[in-house]
Write a structure and sequence with these properties.
By secondary structure, the chain is of the alpha+beta class. Helices cover about 35% and strands about 25% of the residues. The strands form 2 sheets. The chain has a 3-stranded antiparallel beta sheet with strand order 1-2-5. A two-stranded antiparallel sheet has the order 3-4.
Length: about 120
Amino acid sequence: MATITKKQLVERISMDTKQTKVRTKETVQLFLDTITAELEKNNRIELRDFGVFEVKPRAARVGRNPRTGDVVKVPARKVVTFKVGRKMKQNVAVVPKTEPKPDAKAKPDAKAKPDIKAK
């Protein structure tokens, strides 16, 4: 699995649209800034078939410090969530079929000849 950076996205979009990288970078950044600004206003961003960005409240809770075991109060906050759209789910979530793995506990076939290679 590879990580794709914003720079790589800009290069790909630039090549596909025949626009300069500078102009494409400005457009991509404006798109991202607009999404961020709308989420700051608690607006919901719905991109059909891609997904939905939404701000949801997270309630205050009591947690534990894993090192010391001390009780820690975690304050309420808002978090950004993303729900995958229908087409993206269909395109990305497809798991390729793989051959079943042989059962390690199964007894070898008594009639099968051992695999011996002559040197």
